[in-house]
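Why do we bother with holo predictions? Because pocket geometry can differ from the apo form. Keep that in mind while you read this record for magnesium ion.
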Amino acid sequence: MNWTRGRTIGRGSTATVSIAATADNSGHVFAVKSSELSKSESLRREQGILSTLSCPEIVSYKGFDITSENGKVLYNLFMEYAPKGTIMDVIQKQNGGLDETTVRSYTRRILLGLQFLHSSGIVHCDIKSQNILVTDDGVKIADLGCARSVTATATATAACTVAGTPVYMAPEVARGEQQGFAADVWALGCTVIEMATGKSPWPDVKDPVSALYRIGFSSDVPEIPNNISKQGKDFLTKCLKRNPVERLSVNELLEHEFITESKCQVVKDQLDSPISVLQKLLLWDSMEELETIQVPSTNKSVMERI
Ligand code: ATP
Ligand code: MG
Ligand code: MG
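The structure, written out:
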């Protein structure tokens, strides 16, 4: 494929991500993640994993090649381009956390992506807001540079090389013990806090070494935000158990009411204005769900009130 590199859209520890387009004027735009060939071990591993995956909640793979640019040999991984950037970009743009309806919807999509990875025997190992892309279809998990395949002989909590970003690391990972599926669940909890508050899950921890020490060896968990519903608090408590065995699995979290009742929350949020309720009702696709929603002021169901 003939292609042209455009502007840089992201820089990580070893790779640079640029926007790119095919050189045939077809207008086909994609993202390219490039590393010098001599430092491309993690990018080649990422290519190996991404090329086997096909899931709407995981960034889609478009191929790879090797080029020579400005005297350097580069390994290039092609993937779909997300013009809105990452969840972190959205948080920074609006200078704060996301509304709860969005947090619930994004969390559900991340869980679906993780469900696909975990059922394929893959631990992502670096779930965080900077690694979740925002597209018109919802959010997609990206950056599989730290991802590990749990081999057939190992268990889901098998030890593997510690990878990831300190403030999202689970206690067992910070202690260098193991990095199984439950480590992604802890990191998801940290990401949900970041989405809801716009702040780091450990806002008062200043450097990576202090983060690792506190996460690995204290009895603390990240503070559960006050500005989230009771369901959200319960969801986070179940993600952020220090003991990985006590954390809910991704399949169990998909059944949690923070995820399953997100449609009801949309209506509850609109109850101040009867007109808004009516507008929502016209869009609602399931009358059954409506009958279970209570109006706080009158304690009558929405159907009765209307
Ligand atoms: P890290 O240091 O976090 O491991 P990395 O080198 O592995 O980073 P990525 O996280 O894959 O690289 O990409 C770096 C940044 O580039 C992302 O945080 C995001 O801002 C941007 N980016 C990556 N892929 C895309 C894409 N497909 N569309 C739009 N932006 C992207
Ligand atoms: Mg990254
Ligand atoms: Mg990475």
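The first helix runs from residue 41 to 50.
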